[in-house]
Design goal:
Blueprint (H helix, E strand, L loop, with lengths): L1 E6 L2 H9 L6 E5 L2 E6 L2 E5 L4 H14 L4 E12 L9 E9 L3 E4 L2 E4 L9 E2 L3 H11 L2 E7 L7 H10 L5 E3 L2 H10 L4 E10 L10 H21 L6
Length: 231
């Protein structure tokens, strides 16, 4: 089974491919490139849900052979204390946290407006297997277009989405593209910062990238051996 891994930026892509060892084969795509290591094709698709969806859709449509799984991967913010710096989170739900409408009574998700969807659920058995292999905490991961930078916004997100463990900017876009062609999706994040008042000096990007590499070293065999029809 061939696996497409979509990150936002090249440093995340490189952190993933380091887990597989050796020098990846580079395959050119218009406006992007795939780094191929064994059954894994790793793509830096850009920041934000729109770029992620477009890059994922193009890669899926251009593939010479079909993918059996798409993984949104990278670093992200963790909600304290559930997801501390350097920890791993695997999404039980991939949630579009700011897709909807503001009202005098608060935020309404797009589903409350009577159209669209605001979440995707990765295969539960696969989530459990990845969590067991990596030590990642399973739980909802929120997709946002603006990184949270205040205590008030943090509280509002946790009120709207109790149990959320992390936020990032690409998962929902990747999931939208994968859903269109019927391919399962997974999201795996290493925590680089705490969601809340913005303090760039407190971010631990290097540690998170190292954790991401370690995570794919452990989860690679799980993904290679996974068969969606066996679960």
């Amino acid at each position: 089974m061939r696996v497409l891994v979509v990150t936002a930026v090249p440093v995340e892509r490189d952190a993933v491919t380091r887990a597989f060892g050796g020098t990846p084969q580079i395959l050119a795509l218009p406006g992007a490139e795939l780094h191929r290591s064994g059954v894994f094709d790793v793509l830096a698709g850009g920041a934000g849900p729109a770029a992620a969806a477009a890059a994922t859709a193009f890669a899926l449509a251009s593939a010479p052979e079909p993918y059996g799984l798409v993984v949104s991967a990278g670093i992200g913010g963790g909600f304290a204390p559930a997801a501390p710096l350097g920890s791993l989170v695997v999404a039980s739900d991939i949630v579009a946290a700011d897709l909807g409408a503001e009202t005098p009574d608060g935020f309404l998700p797009v589903t409350a407006l009577g159209f669209g969807r605001d979440r995707f659920a990765p295969p539960p058995a696969l989530v459990r297997e990845v969590a067991a292999a990596t030590g990642a905490a399973p739980g909802p991961v929120l997709t946002v277009s603006t990184v949270t930078g205040t205590a008030a916004r943090t509280a509002a997100l946790l009120t709207a989405y109790p149990g959320a463990l992390a936020e990032a900017m690409e998962g929902f876009g990747v999931a939208e593209a994968a859903e269109r062609v019927g391919v399962p999706v997974l999201e795996l994040r290493a925590v680089s910062n705490t969601v809340g008042p913005r303090d760039r000096a407190a971010w631990r990007i290097g540690d998170a990238l190292a954790a991401l590499t370690e995570a794919f070293g452990k989860t690679g065999p799980v993904l290679e051996g996974w068969n969606r029809h066996d679960h």
